[in-house]
Amino acid sequence: MKGRGRVQEGSKGTPKVAVRWTRPGPAQRAVPHPFVPLLAWAYTNGRQPSDEEIEVWNGFMTKRGWRDAGTQRLNERLAEIGLEPGSVQTMFEFIDLVEGRRPAGPSR
């Protein structure tokens, strides 16, 4: 699956930094730092979803917060930053808003 807004493996923007930190405790096991290519780590330590599972997940996430169980949380997050409910319609739009990639208002 390649394309904008989809889960991709080996994206050109994926940092190649391999910093690790150690989780305190008896095991003292190394845990990947967030900059380690996360998708490869997930496939190694979990499982690799099928193309169909990825498509379904992406479809779900692009609409999360729009007239569903996530709407209340989306509105709470908007209130936290001083915006009215409906300033954005989905959690992805909210993320784009707080990261400066879109203005508040109707979807484009």
How does this model look, in words?
The structure is a single chain. This protein is mostly helical and 108 residues long. It folds into two domains: 16-48, no CATH class; 50-108, no CATH class. The chain has four helices and two strands, in the order E-E-H-H-H-H. It has a two-stranded antiparallel sheet with strand order 1-2. Strand 1 and strand 2 (30-32) form a beta hairpin. The chain starts with 19 loop residues before the first strand and ends in a 10-residue tail after the last helix. Residues 1-23 have low confidence and may be disordered.
Short description:
This protein has 108 residues and is mainly alpha-helical.
What secondary-structure arrangement, pairings included, does this model have?
Blueprint: E1 20-22, E2 30-32, H1 38-45, H2 51-63, H3 71-80, H4 91-98
Antiparallel strand pairs: 1-2
Beta-strand content bin: 5-15%
DSSP helical segment count: 4
The total tally of domains equals: 2
The total count of strands amounts to 2
Taking the sheet with the most strands, its summary is:
2 strands, antiparallel
Q: Distance between termini? A: 24 Å
- On the 0 to 100 scale, the average pLDDT is 74
Overall body shape: elongated
Q: Calculate Rg over CA atoms.
A: 17 Å
Secondary structure class reads mainly alpha
Structure keywords:
disordered N terminus; elongated; two-stranded antiparallel ribbon; 108 residues; 36% helix; 6% strand; single chain; mainly alpha
